[in-house]
Amino acid sequence: MTFLKYDTYKMPKAGNSPEEYEDGFSVKEINEEEIRFAIADGATESSFSGIWAALLCEGYTESIPIASLKERWLARVDALELPWYAREKAEQGAWAAYLGASFFSGKSNRLEIQAYGDCNIFQIREDSLLKAFPLTISSEFGSTPALLSSLDQKQESLDDFQNFQNIDYHWQEGDRFLLMTDALAAWFLNEIESKGDGFNRIFALNNQEEFEKLVAEEREKRDPEKGPRLKNDDVTLIKIDTKK
Question: 87: part of which helix (H) or strand (E)?
């Protein structure tokens, strides 16, 4: 019996089909004392970023070296029948932001997190935001986040997950956690900063249908600058509850 309760939700951009979803996520219960979670956000501007995002998540939860993930991405893309212009685009590689979190139970109740880019994790205690990582305020989310490339020649120094931004800390029973890709994370922080009802709505979610309804409604709403309150992007959420 796992020491955590968790739910996963995902939704593509408005106007896109589920097959065009370019985020990724993975969950694996390693044993009775460790559970791993990962999310990734494939960059729309690059080709086959959804494949790369999914591979990064799989790599974290399955302990697969990044060099092997890059080889798998190349093999999958090479196996596709593509027109010359798509092949040329693919040769530039795919890009993605990523975050992995490993929860350990026992005496330590330890949490290891590593991130590259603007996927985020939030720790909630007694209905208040205790910690956000790696970004802490909504204005930190921009149009040019750090992204991990699927090609060796693009980022030779990032051949290992340990080269990412890392943090270790502890959790206690009753804490709740949220893993989010960038558009949803920026919206969530803005809701907290503006004292909106997004905080409560996220934790009130019971199923995928309710998640899709929330996302669709927030995409339609406007902020004070007349922009969408929730950017039209692929969105991924993992809700985690520690048990009392």
Answer: helix 84-90
Backbone angles phi, psi at 108, to 5 degrees: -85, -30
Distance CA 145, CA 235 (A): 16
Residues facing 100 on adjacent strands: 38, 114
Q: What are the distances in angstroms from CA 138 to CA 24, 96, 189?
A: 22, 20, 5
Q: What amino acid is encoded at 202 in this protein?
A: I
How do residues 46-79 score in pLDDT, each as one tens digit? Answer: 889 999 999 999 999 999 988 899 999 989 888 8
* Domains identified in the chain and CATH numbers: 4-242 (3.60.40.10)
Express each pLDDT in 88-98 by its tens digit: 777 888 999 99
Q: What is the mean pLDDT of the chain?
A: 89
At a CB cut-off of 8 Å and minimum separation 6, what does 34 contact? 102, 103, 104, 105
CA torsion angle 98 182 232 139 (round to 10): -150
Q: Which two structure tokens, joined as six digits, stand for 81?
A: 């029948």
Q: List Cα–Cα distances, 50 to 10, 128, 141, 156, 228, in angstroms.
A: 13, 33, 21, 21, 24
Count of residues for the chain? 244
- Nearest CA to 21 among 46, 49, 45? 49
CA distances from 215 to 15, 129, 152, 183 (A): 13, 21, 36, 10
Q: Give CA–CA dist 132/80, Å, rounded.
A: 39
Q: What separation in angstroms does the CA of 47 have from each of 22, 86, 123, 141, 154?
A: 10, 8, 33, 22, 15
Beta bridge partners, 241, equal 5, 176
